[in-house]
Amino acid sequence: MVSRAAIVLLIGLLGMVYQATQLPPPNRSDEIEPSNGEIHVVSPRIRLGDGRYLAYRELGVPKEKAKHKIIIVHGFGSSKEMNFLAPQELIDELGVYLLHYDRAGYGESDPNPKRSLKSEVLDIQELADQLQLGPKFYVVGVSMGSYATWSCLKYIPHRLAGVALVAPVINYQWPSLPEKLIKEDYRRKLMRWAMWLAKYSPTLLHWWVTQKWLPSTSVIEKNPKFFNKRDIEILKMIPGFPMLTKEKLMEEDVFDTLRHDWMVAFGRWEFDPTELSNPFPQNSTLAHIWQGFEDKVVPSQIQRFVSEKLPWIRYHEVPDGGHLIIHYSGLCEAILRALLLGEENVSYKPRLSSTFVF
Length: 358
What we know:
By secondary structure, this protein is an alpha/beta fold. It has helices spanning 2-20, 88-94, 117-130, 146-155, 179-182, 186-200, 202-209, 217-220, 229-235, 246-249, 252-266, 300-309, 331-341; strands at residues 45-47, 53-60, 68-73, 96-101, 137-142, 160-166, 287-292, 314-318. Strands 1-2-4-3-5-6-7-8 form an eight-stranded mixed sheet, with helices on both faces. Strand 7 (287-292), helix 12 (300-309) and strand 8 form a beta-alpha-beta unit. The radius of gyration is 19 Å and the shape is globular. Residues 1-22 form the signal peptide. This is AB hydrolase-1 domain-containing protein.
C-alpha cells in the first residue's frame, strides 16, 4: 500500500511542481541580510483584520492616475515576483496599474491556518480596500491562483470590473463534470491519492517529498508527460524555484502552506463554478478563460466544457499552447486587450473540432 501510494504521490506532485515553473525565482533585492544571516522583510505589507500581514508590490502606472486597476493572483509555489509580460507601452497607453501580492503563507505574507475558498477572497478584498483601489477592480488568476478568482466571482461579484483566468485548474470534484468526460482521465485518480495523503498522512507526504533520491525539479520540469514542446522551450529559460527545493520543503511552514493550498484548490468546494451567475450582464467582454489546446495538466476538453456551461465567459485557446501560456510572447498583451478593450485576437479562437488526446 505504501509503495503504491508513494509512486502515485510522486506523479501527483509533479503536477504541483509544474505550476511553479510559470514564474521566475523571487527577487530578494528588497530584503536586507545582516551579518547574523537573518532576513528582514522590507516589502510593503498591509495588516489584515485577523492580524496577518499580506505583502505586495505595485507595477504599471501610478495608482492615482490609473484607468484600470488589476490584481494578479499567483499560482502554486510562486509569489508576488511573478512576471506579467505585457508591453510597457501598452500599460502606459491604457493606464494600467498592476498589483501583485503574496498569497497567505507565500513569499513575505503570513500563513493562514484557516485558509479556505472564502479566505482567499477576503484577503483580496481587504488588500484592495486598504490600498484604496476603489469600488471595483479587475482580477487575473494564473493556474492554481484561479481558484481564488472563481471564488471572487462567487463571493464578491459586485467588486469586479472584470476577470481573466489563465490556464485555470480543474477540480474533478465539481458535480457538473460529466462522468464520461473524466472517467478515464488519469489525473483524476492522481488527485484522489494526493488529496488522501495530504489530508490523512501529511507526515508520510513530508518524508516523501524531501527524500534526496527523488528526481530533481530540473528533471521534472522537462518531463514531456506534463509539458508540450513549447512549454519545454520556455522551461529552458526559467531558473530554479527556491520554494520547491528539498531544503525549503523541510521547513514546516513552507510545507504546510503548499499542502493547505493544494487541499483547498482540489478539495470539496462550497459551489460549482459552472453554476455561477453572470456578474456582467451589460457587457460580454469582461470575463475570459485562456487555455492551451495542448495543455497536459488541464485538458482543453474539460476547459471547453466549463466554458460552454458559462456562455458569458469568452473562451480563448492557444493552438500550440501547453500549461505555461502565461509566458508565451504576446499572450499578456492579448489578455489586456481582450479584458480592457474587448478586442478579439483571431489567433486565439478555439478550433472547431478537438483531436488532442489526454
